[in-house]
Amino acid sequence: MQLGMVGLGRMGGSMATRLLKAGHGVTVFDLNPEAVEAVSAAGGTPASSLDDLVSLLDAPRTVWVMVPSGDITESTVGDLSRLLSSGDTLIDGGNSNYKDSQRRAAAIAKEGIDYLDAGTSGGVWGLDNGYCLMVGGPREAYDRALPILKALSPDEGGCMHTGPSGSGHYVKMVHNGIEYGLMQAYAEGFELLAAKKEFNLDLAEIAETWRHGSVVRSWLLDLSADAFREDPRLESLSSYVEDSGEGRWTVDTSVELAVPTPVITAALHARFRSRQPNPLGGRMLAALRNQFGGHAVRSADE
Question: What pTM was estimated for this model as a whole?
């Protein structure tokens, strides 16, 4: 099958390469010429602009957008919707908000263009292991794109049509919220293991042992074992943890639907706290405890 790939970052470039290895024709565009050159060296056809990319594809065209969510996705989808024609398919594989995907799908449907919102999970390991794909949008467009979707996903599965427009990114949003909770549980558990100094526990060996037969085994645990092998106490890292938006959307949606998600919410807030050195909230706790009970406090430079 023939595909246009817009956005060749950590995932987009690997996805294009995986498709090329599977025998598909991939025309690529990115604002970074080096990224285009790298995929072109693997057999991709370079495009100098979105207009050029569309002109190099035979109708009906399929274009996959793999750029950061927000304004960049909005402008890219808008530009492509003016270049594509009725019968073409536009796939957004980034982490877009599902409500934006519903809106965009409705807008370009007026031009006869199908919109698929493809929640994509797999990270930098997807090139070798395949990507988990959660795809919303018209079933007919999904079926037409199946050769591409199957080439990107693992051999044993990992690809589904989730339902109408927006549902793919909705499922991916909840997926990432669960990911936040799982990561936080591992982080807290291993911190508790390390805190028992008298046992001098080998965190790498524990993680490796748990990988085999344990009810808490998972790919995240596999990655934990790798991390501890490289740095037994993770002393080379800061505890600063960013969030890319999906956790916030998950929590916002839980409030909107009145569905309690205390674990996911706490995990999101733990990331916020990780980015606050000596936060006011903690200082206020110390101040109040001193005020009512005379408990000792530490100065800011201790």
Answer: 0.93
